[in-house]
Amino acid sequence: MYVDCFVAVNTVKRTCEDTLKNGGYKFFCPACDFELTVAVVRHILSIVRSGKELNALLDRMNENYINRPDTDIRRCAVCGVNWRRDFTKRWPGHRNRVVCNTCSRNQGRQVEYCWGCRQEWRGNAYTCGHTDCTWEEEQLRALANCGTKTIGSVHGCPVIRACPRCGTLIHHEDGCKHMSCRCGCDFCFVCLKRKRRFRGWECSTYDSPCPIAARQTALPCPNLPLQCHSLATAVFRTYFNWFTGWFRRNN
User: Fold this and answer.
1) Does the residue 82 lie in any domain?
2) What φ, ψ does residue 178 adopt, rounded to 5°?
3) Is residue 85 a part of any domain in this protein?
4) 3 state DSSP class of 82
């Protein structure tokens, strides 16, 4: 990968330092706004930085990425190992309740941590049991203070949204307004309306403008589907899906 324009090495050095100081982890050319990959940055800065200093720069990049409010990686406060949030859990398994395999192996028991405050889980199935857990406050602060961008022909849309189903923060990088969360929820990033199973998108096509929903001030309960749906409803859905599949195969 090549950069078409010429920028002084010291300029790139200052740009990288300012980006890391402000909590960023992506570098862009100050002249043409071209994104500089890690390989390009290492190649350019190898003239003025030693190998040890370049490795320290990469460590700061990783640290900034981990500290993003919408990242799916956390570092264990005890063993220092990074672990990823498990989005394959089905309800009522709470996704904020994370198992650290390293600590479990070292202590000879299953050790679980809160995804938000990173303290050992001591509560029930839904809360970590620590009154000083500020995870939800941090999520809401990110939603309130994030910047805006243009998506399609819609201007001023917040760059971070919480999934209407599980509350996971999603950062809009590029593409259209229709989003697919890892929990299986499809929603519009602009108006926050969810895609209906049989009716499709309520906000029209992916490239059509729709009203911008206000910044979210509350997170949805990730266990809401379990609380709302009874066992009878689950059984009905199972048989309904089976009948629908059988009907399609035989018609």
Assistant:
1) yes
2) -80, 130
3) yes
4) strand
